[in-house]
Write a structure and sequence with these properties.
The protein has helices at about 1-20, 25-35, 40-55, 55-60, 65-85, 90-115, 120-130, 135-155, 160-180, 195-200. It has about 200 residues and is mostly helical.
């Protein structure tokens, strides 16, 4: 679980360094970072904690992974960004983008396979699904559109990387879920985590 969370933060930092477009929630985090002067990792932690508070009226119960997600992803993102050199040319930025997306898929597979609870943003979407009766897909789409638009208005980066992430993260996460699946404690057989990648992407 912690390896997945740390890798998720590091892979997100690669997308930030590439500057070719971020995943939806990091568009918001980057926009808020531009507005407040805080680092994107610190903003991620603050937003994650705020989203977790929204679980209370939705009657969601956080797990160890949920609480850990709030802090580990943001710290790993800031730590990785501090170590990365500036990338100016496309020959450097494109590999950073591709590596970030692939490693993000691996991180998602690791985290979900550990089965210690969803990330705070995913729990928000499933909680809204239960409270409203609307589909998870609709709730997720509505929330992420609002997040992207708000982040873009505040100065977050949208680009080809945003589109590439959107179309590839589901298949990548599914593939890595099979790789990292752990044996069931009760049955002793190898299983894939019950939540599908489309409903369980971390969204730091």
């Amino acid at each position: 679980m912690y390896a997945g969370l740390a890798l998720y933060g590091a892979s997100s930092a690669l997308l930030v360094a590439a500057g070719l477009g971020l995943e939806p929630w990091n568009v918001l985090h980057q926009g808020l970072a531009e507005l407040t002067g805080l680092s994107i990792g610190v903003v991620s932690i603050i937003v994650g904690a705020a989203v977790l508070l929204l679980w209370i009226p939705l009657r969601q119960r956080p797990g160890l992974g949920t609480v850990s997600n709030v802090f580990v992803v943001g710290l790993a993102m800031d730590g990785t960004l501090a170590l990365l050199p500036d990338a100016h040319s496309l020959t450097a930025r494109v590999p950073l983008l591709v590596a970030g997306i692939v490693l993000n898929g691996a991180a998602t597979g690791l985290y979900i396979a550990a089965r210690f609870g969803p990330g705070p943003r995913d729990g928000l979407m499933t909680g809204l699904h239960r409270r409203t009766g609307r589909s998870v897909r609709l709730m997720r789409t509505a929330v992420e559109i609002a997040v992207v638009v708000t982040g873009f208005v505040l100065g977050g980066t949208i680009g080809v990387g945003t589109v590439l992430y959107a179309v590839s993260i589901g298949p990548l996460a599914q593939a890595f879920l099979r790789v990292f699946a752990v044996p069931s404690a009760s049955a002793g057989s190898t299983v894939v985590a019950a939540a599908t990648p489309g409903r369980a992407i971390l969204r730091p």
